[in-house]
C-alpha cells in the first residue's frame, strides 16, 4: 500500500511511476462509496470517480476491489473507534460511559449520516461473497466492541452506577445487536426521532 506521508497530490511523476495521492483522503472517499452502495454494487468506475484516481492507480495501490474495500474498512473502523473512545472519555462513571457508547450509535443512525449507512453493516450483509480476508476484520471489530462493553459493565458495577441481572457477555452482544439494527434502520430513515428516547430506554435495562 502506498505511504501517504511520502506523497503529495501535485508531485511530478516519472515514466512508469504510480500516481501519487493523499492516502487518507482517498480512503475517506472510498468509505463513502462503499457505505452508500455496498461492496457488490460498487464498481471500480465509482471508486475512480469518487477518488479522482485512475483505475491503474487504484490497482497499483490496492491490487483489486477487495483490497480497496479492506483498506477503506480499516480506515473507517479506526475513525469510528477514535470517535467512540473520545466520547466515552468524557464519562465519569460506568453509566456515563455506557450512555456515551450508545449515543455514538444513535447519532450515527440519524440524518444524513444514518442514510449513508454503516460500512460494517454493508460488509455483513454481503459477507457470503467474500473470502476470509473480509470476515476476519469484521469479526475482530465486533470482538473489540464486546470487550469495550464488558469493561464498561465492570466499571459500572464497581462504582455502583450499573446493575446487570444477566450474563455480561450475553448482555453485551444483545446490546450490540440492537445498536447495529438501529444503524441498519437508519439507512431508510426509520431511526429518526428524539435521540434521547432510545438512549434512556436502553439505559433502563441497567437501572
From TrEMBL:
<keyword id="KW-0805">Transcription regulation</keyword>
<dbReference type="InterPro" id="IPR009057">
    <property type="entry name" value="Homeodomain-like_sf"/>
</dbReference>
<dbReference type="InterPro" id="IPR001647">
    <property type="entry name" value="HTH_TetR"/>
</dbReference>
<feature type="domain" description="HTH tetR-type">
    <location>
        <begin position="20"/>
        <end position="80"/>
    </location>
</feature>
<keyword id="KW-0614">Plasmid</keyword>
<dbReference type="InterPro" id="IPR023772">
    <property type="entry name" value="DNA-bd_HTH_TetR-type_CS"/>
</dbReference>
<dbReference type="InterPro" id="IPR011075">
    <property type="entry name" value="TetR_C"/>
</dbReference>
<dbReference type="InterPro" id="IPR036271">
    <property type="entry name" value="Tet_transcr_reg_TetR-rel_C_sf"/>
</dbReference>
<keyword id="KW-0804">Transcription</keyword>
<dbReference type="Pfam" id="PF00440">
    <property type="entry name" value="TetR_N"/>
</dbReference>
<feature type="DNA-binding region" description="H-T-H motif">
    <location>
        <begin position="43"/>
        <end position="62"/>
    </location>
</feature>
<feature type="region of interest" description="Disordered">
    <location>
        <begin position="1"/>
        <end position="21"/>
    </location>
</feature>
<dbReference type="Pfam" id="PF16925">
    <property type="entry name" value="TetR_C_13"/>
</dbReference>
<keyword id="KW-0238">DNA-binding</keyword>
<protein>
    <submittedName>
        <fullName>TetR/AcrR family transcriptional regulator</fullName>
    </submittedName>
</protein>
